[in-house]
Amino acid sequence: MATGKNPLFDTATTLGKIFAFLGVSAICGVLVAGLLVPAAAVSGSTASGSIEFFDTLPAELQVDPPSQSTKILAADGSLIANLYAENRTRVSLDQMSPYIKDAVIAIEDSRFYEHGGVDTTGIMRALVSTARGNKQGASTITQQYVNNVINASLEAEGNTEDIKLNGVNKGVGDKLREMKLAIALEKKFTKEQILEGYLNIVFFNRDAYGIEAASKFFFSSAAKDLTLPQAALLAGVVNSPSFYDPINNPDNAKNRRDQVLNAMYTQGKINQADYEAAVATPVETKVTPARQGCAYASTAPYFCDYVLHLLLNDPAYGADANERERKIFRGGLTITTTLDPNAQNAAQAQVDGAAGANPDKWGASMVSVQPNTGKITNMAQNTVWLPADGKFQAEQNFNVDTLDADGNDLNGLGGFQPGSTMKPFTFAEWLNEGKSMNTVVNGAVRKYPLSYQFRNSCGVTTGAYNSAEVGLGAADDLQNAEEGYYRSMSVLQGLYNSINTITFASAAQLDFCGIQKIVDAVGLHSGLPKRDDTGKVVEAQPKINMFTLANLLGSTQTSPLTMASAFATFSNDGKYCAPIAITSVTDQTGAQLPAQSTNCRDAIKPEVARGVNYALQEVLNQGSGSLIQPRISTKTSFPIAAKTGTSNNNGSTWVVGHTTGLATAAWFGDPLGDQKRAGQNVTINGKFYKGIDGYMIAGPMFSNFMSQVAPAYGTNPFTAPPANLVGGAPTTRQTTPSTQNSAPAPAPSTPAPAPSKGNGNGNGNG
How far apart are CA 333 and CA 69, in angstroms? Predict the structure, then answer.
């Protein structure tokens, strides 16, 4: 049996209406007294209790700027990407159409300019209407602003469980607090400031917070350019963003829009002609989807992600990861970077063309830095961030260290084996010890047994090359890419022809401690962090251990950015400049926040750097780099120095080089899994390769890019090295590397080292 209503209190009866009216009047009296009359002037226990509660509430409201979009910009000011938790762009009141101001006031708070934060007339009207069964709100624009600010602050703090919504979880105490704060706000700010704040914070759509974002989302327009029908429609959306959504519910949106227009007309804000024309206008949207994050970057998504990781890993932006994330995604920052869009476009074209359709997912990347500043000008790779038909999709950044690309992802790439691009650092120590590059050494020596005593003034050198001791942890006898080079030649010839046995013959006469110091000084390190048994990072950038023989030929993974910065040291007369990507960060008030600045140090002697430049130019003139097509050399274009490199199984190939104004690392190879896929007997871009070498694919990428971009950064001649380091003119090369499509089969892979011996594998080629 249904429960019946008490006829005495049924609001449908005359007596019920009287009781309802008296009850509403009493509530209104308490509210008015609490808002407008000192507590001492009111008698009665109920009224006094209400006022006592009311007066204990905070008297001030800290109005923090609402969450805003962060912008990442290229060096020329062009937009790379937006980052946000809430899509919002703050604009001043004079950057908003007058129609939106009038429309919002007309429909939300017609007495906005008359009340002091709380509209008592509206409260009485709403209470009577609600008591009669027709629920009606009475919040002023100021009260709505207060509620939005409180909720935005809770959201920013991650305290979402305390967010209060009208008609959902807001009680009488919440409403009283909101009223008190609204009155305090009106005493502190002008009506224009409150209206501006409200229009910048109010929610229109899950992808649009504030009027500027809403205008761009729904109409692809700025807020200042909103037409009357558009402004009225957006003003109507505020009441129920889902129900009045013009995209999904256009009929509801039109009815609400016309209601707003009618309010504007009856309140004298528009004339009859404008009203009739606006009502006759169909609801039409021109949606610009809100796309946030580096995945939607207009250019260089992986560089964008690198910048983001730099900030997320920087304690200057917060004590912990959550605080830094809030700062970046809610702080309305403007981050200006070093990216050169012209260089980026050129690099992207080269990596995209390196592997064509690429069903086997071979990777290509290219990164450049300015030698005298460390500024990163471009960072490209041949993948797409978001899945797309026919494209190689990857979220990992091929160009940087694991922690700069994947946070604590244990599967981060961390770079690739650099192969023979490590040889210039042994050559640099040769010059550093005062030896002439034209000194002849014996390249016929292939055995370096476990008992071999290398000179090392600060440690123990491990590893061996001796087929007879493979079972004890040695690698097979040292191998070159081609048979014709097991002979004596100058150290210079050995470098520009990339001869493994010459690198070892020269290293055998050096102090390995000196090689290690040079490698450390130019910033070379492994891109894979060291972790403890729990997976915690204990060393972010482990040193490349040059006391392990295999590292003379580049067996430890390192990133293209690290290699480009190291080679830039040679270009910069021996000064190493740490790579930087962020030149300026400002918050929404224009205040400067910590950014990166050029950080250079003396790394190697200037005369040594000049000697290396001399030798690396010969790589392109008559060595392994002379096979690059289209060819780029110091004799036919501008002064440029470079080194090719190939890993043991041809799965990682490089050209790294520089002019006086730009250093670039170009890489092509296997970016998948454990990177053990061999680059042998493969077809790429319709061309068969018995074995991919550095000059074959990475080489043209490098050559084309540098020919196009390097002149803009300076291509002055390199300073000549002192005569004692040259020791006479280079001898004429007696044999030439093969010019066919492939290199000879590389040395077979070698077993893992015995725990006490160390391994000497890593026969880097060309």
Answer: 7
Give CA–CA dist 294/739, Å, rounded: 42
Q: Which helix (H) or strand (E) holds 656?
A: strand 652-658
Measured distance CA(437)–CA(55) in Å, rounded: 87
Q: How confident is the model over 374-432, as pLDDT tens digits?
A: 999 999 999 999 988 889 999 899 999 998 886 445 456 889 999 999 999 999 999 99
> pLDDT tens digits for 553-587?
999 999 999 999 999 999 999 999 999 999 999 99
The residues near 112 (Cβ < 8 Å, ≥ 6 apart) are 105, 140, 141, 142, 191, 195
> Does 379-722 match 85-280 at the fold level?
no
- Mean pLDDT (the chain) is 85
Dist. CA 579–CA 169, nearest whole Å: 52
**C-alpha to C-alpha distance for 599 and 295, rounded to whole angstroms:** 30
Dihedral sign computed on CA atoms, order 305, 308, 314, 315: negative
Closest CA to 648 of 546, 764, 557: 764
- Most distant CA atoms of the chain, gap in Å: 117
- Topology of the domain covering 379-722: Beta-lactamase (3.40.710)
In whole angstroms, give the CA distance from residue 381 to residue 666.
10
Q: pLDDT tens digit string along 107-136?
A: 999 999 999 988 877 666 656 655 565 555
Residue 758 has pLDDT above 50, yes or no: no
Angle at 533 between CA 528 and CA 539, to 5 degrees: 35
How many whole angstroms separate alpha carbon 204 and alpha carbon 686? 52
Residue 707: other Cβ atoms inside 10 A: 16
Going by CATH, does the domain composed of 85-280 fall within 1.10.3810.10? yes
State whether the Cα torsion 410-412-414-420 is positive or negative. Answer: positive
Q: Hey, where are the domains in the chain?
A: 14-55, 85-280, 379-722
| CB burial readout 19-33, b (16+ within 10 A) else e | ebeeebeebbbbbeb
DSSP state for residue 79 in the 8-state scheme:
E
Omega before 371 within 30 of 0, i.e. cis: no
